[in-house]
Amino acid sequence: MFAFLEDFRYTRWVKRLNRTAQVLLSLTLVGGLNYVAARHFTRWDLTPTRRYSLSAETLAYLDQSVRENMKGAPDKPLELILVSQSQMSEDDRLRRDQIQTLLKEYEDAGKSLPGGSIPLTIKEVDPDRQLDQAAQLQKYSPLIALPMVIVRYGDDRVRALNSTDLYHVEKDASGKGLDVKDFCGENAITSAILDVVQTKADKIYFTFGHGELAADTSTFGLSDFADALKQCNYKLGSINLSGLDDIPADATVVVIVLPYASRSAFSPVEQEKLRRYLNQRNGRVLLFLSANTERDQSYGLENLLREWGLRSLNLRVIETDPSHLVTLGFTVFNPVEDVKRKHLVTQQLARTAQPVLMGSLRPVEVDPDASEDAQHQVHELLATTKASIVIPPDVSGSNVVPIAKGVQVVAAISEKRASDAVDLPGGELMVYGDTDIITNNLFGQAANRQLMLDSVNYLAKHEHMLGIRPLAPKESTLDIKTAQLEGLGWRLAILPALMALFGLVVCWLRYRS
Prior knowledge:
19% strand, four-stranded mixed sheet
């Protein structure tokens, strides 16, 4: 029946059909592999500074805050527009390429967030060639000092970022020119995205009127802390409780940073305003105290602390364990060693063994005389070692007789529920027995920045941001270490090895047949 297949003409036709099928199957295999690879892939950032990766903080903001705020207008586009010219200097071209790389990371991240994709698009506009689009962007900001980035959410919410926003610039040695130090585009762009998508930003108020450290002071002040809060899209304000009817309604957190020697204590009226804010409005207060040589009270806030189950006596805590001391008498705290005081605020520091650095310490402890209150719970955050001692604030010298010895708590938080019937979040009072930790002197040291931002994020109910340190990407060349190169080599060799093995098996089977 199939004798015709033995004819040479049919055999040649069958061989041609076989070759054609092989070619088609090969093309189908290549196309299918590329299709799968384009949608399911893993990237490795081998740069030492993780130049080609967004920080975990930015990813959390995109996945949580940005997504939540965009739910109200899902069809409203979020655009990152890079404005640059085709003809520019070599330095400007390098900056444009650096910004392009960063914007590409935002675009890729918007498609692969854990909670799903968000509508984020990237555009590039050349004002010399795309005159109509450039004219439209001109109404938001003068298109000068290119390259620049415009963050636009719809047509009504826009932020323009120029070179001074995207780069940290300082005067050169001559004092006449400018040197570009760091590329801080990720911080600037993330802050701009949050600014345009959020209808209402959380506001942090700093008190003044008692000699408190100011948020806008750079020398021994809080300007570094204030800048970090602005990068996290918090709005800042200041209040004088003696001159206000009450704490503003938009206050998310009230920060009180009292120095070593304040001019005056909080009056009973001011203390009552803080009490109403905490109890009646479920407010959040972040308080920094230090040993005060000029008065025996806790700056007039001792009654408020007692009501919240806390006590901070006007004493100095001295750490004598050599392993916890650094130059100038600052104390090192490693939360991983203090497992008894685990809390959401310090959990990431303990998990990664990141120490914090504190200056002149004052005890902050659970008040042993406080009446039992089922509505509030006190958590200790940081404590010294067993080798620490407690002395009066106005005494110094090597022959001081300590008042007490042993572990001393220097940071704590008291939290209340809003009612007994249901477990709703209530007011929160977080107290640190140190002022140096938040000042410009120590804010950038060790993990102080992370701890301070985590404290604010926790009080502001942004728990998804806890333990995430922002990265400030810097320009760097690709630097693959030997171990990384070897690890990359065997991964790249897996697929060719499997294909070679498959070919050997096919050849063996054909040989056997």
